Amino acid sequence: MRALQLTDPGVVEIRQVPIPSVGPTEVLIKVGAAGICHSDLHLLHFPVKMREEPLTLGHEIAGTVAAVGSQVAGIADGDRGVVYLCWSCGVCRECVSGNENVCEAAGRTAMPPCPGLGPDGGMADYVVVPARAFVPIGDLDVTQAAPIADAGLTSMHAIAGVREHLRPGGTVVVIGVGGLGHVAVQILKAISPVRVVAVDVGAGQLQLAADCGADAALESGPDTAAEILAMTGGRGADVVLDFVGVDATAQMSVAAVAPNGAYRMIGLGGGTPGVTAEPAGGPGWPWGASVRKSYGGTRSDLIDVIELAKAGKVTVATEEFPLREARAALDHLEAGKIRGRAVLVP
Ligand code: NAD
Ligand code: ZN
Ligand code: ZN
To answer: What are the two backbone dihedrals, phi and then psi, of residue 326, each rounded to the nearest 5 degrees?
Structure first.
């Protein structure tokens, strides 16, 4: 089969590799679509090899079951689904509490094994996954479903964690209206009464935000936090979801969040927010606000966002590329030219 593999830092190639064999508790999936996440760019630019042997990329996977391990029950050939990307242990206290995204087996700062980031991923004709990671999608189109596995999941999780802040008359700022952000705007509009203010550097992305139901769209810059304060009576936004995570957006988030508000870091741009323990009376961090670095999501979050997609309340804007054009798709994403999510179709 063909697989898009990271062979050296910065180098991806389509290589011919054997179709993986299926262990007793695994399923083989014939990939229908695999989304390209900005994290794939972070991986591509990672200065050292992720692992010694070439790594097949792709952690947003949808497809059809092609073979089932001998001990797997309840999944049959031909079933359609997505791959839940937290391959957690399933038995630690966090996992049994439903917090599989922070599985204890992963350690303090790592994440549970994730296809395309350690084990081989789904930018290939086939991928083998733990049967537990297979989540059915019903009739949902596979190009829609693939981005739901991460762009949907991660956005849903960040929003689920701020539910108590989503009140009528409240304001949520979404910074970065790319693959994740444009889904986040739709989830917010689908499940809550808040005003959504989208922020991006690109005119096309700001238009996409409006198309997704955002109530306002602001060009990202040094004055954006002041504009958000002006829109909220000087108080700030109840929630700021930062899907970029560079210094500029981290500092914007700190300057724009309301007292008792919630700032969530989802983007992994390495930015430093500068949350300080200064006394009141100056710029900086308001009383009572919280910050959380949000990773992936729970299986329950994934099911929630699949249901929103099935109900037509979340529609991913996709740009399809054949697998052989993966490099061009990655370059388009890097150049900020993708509207929504780029999806590879084998
Ligand atoms: P994307 O490239 O599709 O979207 C990023 C968006 O941010 C683009 O629309 C871009 O124009 C915009 N942007 C860039 N600089 C900006 C700025 N200064 N101000 C405002 N907007 C700006 O990326 P994506 O796939 O949506 O991923 C977003 C981030 O989230 C990446 O860093 C990715 O690695 C990370 N991510 C994190 C998790 C997690 O679990 N925490 C999961 C998936 C992705
Ligand atoms: Zn991702
Ligand atoms: Zn666990």
So the answer is: -60, -40
CATH 3.40.50.720 in the chain is located at 162-293
The backbone region for 234, taken as left when phi is positive above 0, alpha when psi lies in -120 to 50, beta otherwise, is: left
Mutate which of 244, 253, 305 for ligand 1? The one with the most ligand atoms within 8 Å of its CB, which is 244
Per-residue pLDDT of the chain (346 residues; tens, 9 = 90+): 999 999 999 999 999 999 999 999 999 999 999 999 999 999 999 999 888 899 999 999 999 999 999 999 999 999 999 999 999 999 999 999 999 999 999 999 999 999 999 999 999 999 999 999 999 999 999 999 999 999 999 999 999 999 999 999 999 999 999 999 999 999 999 999 999 999 999 999 999 999 999 999 999 999 999 999 999 999 999 999 999 999 999 999 999 999 999 999 999 999 999 888 887 666 678 999 999 999 999 999 999 999 999 999 999 999 999 999 999 999 999 999 999 999 999 9
Pocket of ligand 1 (CB under 6 A): 37-39, 42, 150, 154, 175-181, 199-202, 205, 220, 243-246, 248-249, 266-269, 294-296, 333, 336
Phi then psi for residue 6, to 5 deg, are -85, 115
Ligand 1 nearest-atom number relative to CA 180: 26
> Other C-beta atoms within 10 Å of 35: how many?
30
3-state class (DSSP) for residue 2: strand
Fold of the 2-150+296-345 domain: Quinone Oxidoreductase; Chain A, domain 1 (3.90.180)
Whether residue 74 contacts residue 47, with contact meaning beta carbons closer than 8 Å, is answered with no
Q: In whole angstroms, how far apart are CA 185 and each of 36, 147, 205, 284, 305?
A: 19, 15, 12, 26, 13
Residue spans in the chain of domains classed CATH 3.90.180.10 = 2-150+296-345
DSSP type of residue 268: -
CATH number of 162-293: 3.40.50.720
